[in-house]
Specification:
The complex is a heterodimer of chains A (254) and B (266). With 254 residues, chain A is an all-alpha fold. Helices cover 80% and strands 0% of the residues of chain A. Chain A has one domain: MetI-like fold (Orthogonal Bundle). In chain A, 34% of the residues are buried. Helix content of chain B is 30%, strand content 25%. The chains are: A mainly alpha (254), B alpha/beta (266). At the A-B interface, α7 and α8 of A face α3 of B.
Chain lengths: 254, 266
């Protein structure tokens, strides 16, 4: 029974995927599309394992950037969200500033990062964190404040100190909101890391894509794209798993 | 009558709304004796929930004196159990941990209340549900858990704000009986029972449960009538069909709607 249900759920996805691959292969081999415009799936597959490309190293670099960006965005986002929910004074000080930062086209800041920090993993992490932190701030602040007034009254009746209300009521209440924002951040961290690598890098999957522009090795660009999405999917999957473990009561909220 | 537990004299409450000041309560004088079960009924917006919060010290009265257990109320009072219309259980905590929440919030040793919590669960018919999450329980069971939570620290005063208002009619009648049982109608002497202030929309519910029913007027809320319910305790299901029960309900209904024969003395 269980296997049947799984098949029913995933069969359409697999079928569509295979059909698209087939169409793609046919378009290339029969339609005569040139290799540098659209490489056949088979040559992309080969490119995924090119021994002359240091895939492991590129993967490692980009993965680090993405994970670092994700963690930075998560930690800073939660801290800012807590600060905003904790004190109206901090909220008044921080919110307009954060909204301003969020309206900046982050991509346009990348060249500045190059000037300030040079090449390296860190500026690319920072780019990912900059793109991904805002939803975490907002969702943390919202989750912390979406507590029924009656629940807070209950806390007041028992003379509970503010930190205890945060620890026992507000923060657990915000957890599903935070985890939901982290799913967005996982995707944003990937974008940020690649953008950073586009602007300045000597390693990484984004760097591989940049080099294919001059070599016209389109298959390699496709292969790099696939590796990027693998990293992104793994991170996203981890966040979903965390949500399942940490906030099972909120299942099905998003 | 035993000593009074709640003493309100000329309590008024005015709040600022966008359109100007709104007078929610005016000149409420009311005394509730220890161990008494008193219901507040009145039209929507008459301030009965506000009055409950003023007694708890959660909202300040604009004028007048609020005295609970001989103390003037100026901030939230600790010796009180509160039950609201929604059970507001914490979704991530088991029923047992929800019931233990007051001990944690009040900074007491949680383990010391473990036995008490289990005793309450037993009494409320929830003994098999200690380790369940709130969403695994029906609305009525959640509300019973919320009552257990209110009783954990054994407060002398229970404030209940339309606690059965969100339940279906049959569950509601069952819960009324349950509440009287847990309150100790059968096995406790009057002075050992908790004082209950109970806000409701339902006239039959108020009559069935209470020693006294306070009927409030539309905004600004005033005491329109203060009726003693001289029905024998323990109250039974049959009582609902009796002549005096109907008479009392009708009298309250008439007072509420301002029709014939209402006693409007303050």
């Amino acid at each position: 029974m269980k296997i049947k249900a799984l098949v029913r759920q995933y069969a359409p996805t697999v079928a569509l995927f295979v059909a698209l691959l087939g169409l793609w292969q046919i378009a290339v081999s029969i339609g005569g599309i040139r290799e540098y415009l659209l490489p056949a799936p088979a040559s992309v597959w080969n490119a995924l394992w090119y021994p002359e490309v240091a895939w492991a190293e590129h993967l490692w670099t980009t993965s680090w950037e993405i994970v670092g960006a994700f963690l930075m965005a998560g930690v800073v986002g939660v801290l800012l969200g807590v600060a905003i929910a904790w004190s109206p004074l901090l909220a008044n000080a921080l919110v307009p500033f954060l909204v301003f930062v969020n309206t900046l086209p982050k991509v346009a800041v990348a060249p500045l990062f190059l000037i300030w920090m040079g090449y390296g993993i860190f500026p690319n992490m920072l780019m990912g964190a900059l793109i991904g932190f805002f939803p975490v701030v907002i969702n943390t602040a919202v989750g912390l404040s979406q507590v029924e007034q009656d629940m807070l009254d209950l806390g007041r009746v028992f003379n509970a100190p503010k930190w205890k209300i945060f620890a026992k009521i507000r923060i657990p209440n915000a957890l599903p909101y935070i985890l939901s924002a982290l799913k967005i951040t996982a995707t944003a961290a990937v974008v940020g890391a690649i953008v950073g690598e586009f602007v300045a890098s000597q390693k990484g999957l984004g760097y591989v894509i940049v080099t294919t522009q001059s070599s016209m090795n389109t298959g390699l660009a496709f292969a790099a794209l696939i590796w990027i999405s693998v990293v992104g999917l793994v991170l996203y999957g981890l966040v979903v798993l965390l949500a399942h473990l940490w906030a099972p009561w909120a299942e099905g909220i998003d | 009558m035993a000593e009074s537990l709640i003493d309100l004299s000329r309590v008024g409450m005015t709040y600022e709304a966008a359109s100007g000041p709104v007078e929610a309560l005016a000149g409420i004088s009311l005394t509730v004796g220890a161990g008494e079960f008193v219901s507040l009924v009145g039209p929507s917006g008459c301030g009965k929930s506000t009055l409950l919060r003023i007694v708890a010290g959660l909202r300040p009265a604009t004028v007048g004196d609020v005295v609970v257990e001989g103390q003037r109320v100026t901030e939230p009072i600790a010796d009180v159990g509160m039950v609201f219309q929604a059970p507001i259980l914490l979704k991530w905590r088991t029923i047992l941990d929800n019931i233990l929440l007051p001990a944690e919030l009040a900074g007491k040793e949680k383990r010391a209340y473990w036995a008490r919590a289990h005793e309450l669960l037993e009494m409320a018919g929830l003994h098999g549900f200690a380790d369940k999450l709130p969403r695994e329980l029906s609305g009525g069971m959640q509300q019973r858990a919320s009552l257990c939570r209110a009783l954990l620290l054994d407060p002398p005063l229970l404030l209940m704000d339309e606690p059965f208002g969100a339940l279906d009619a049959m569950t509601r009648d069952d819960m009324a009986l349950e509440l009287l049982r847990i309150w100790g109608e059968r096995d406790l002497a009057r002075e050992q029972r908790k004082t209950v202030l109970f806000v409701t929309h339902s006239i039959p519910e108020a009559v069935f449960l209470s020693d006294r029913v306070i009927v409030m007027s539309p905004r600004p809320g005033r005491v329109a009538a203060d009726l003693r319910i001289e029905l024998p305790r323990p109250r039974t299901v049959e009582l609902r069909a009796s002549e005096p029960f109907g008479q009392l309900s009708l009298e309250i209904f008439r007072t509420l709607t301002g029709r014939a024969g209402a006693d409007t003395g303050v």
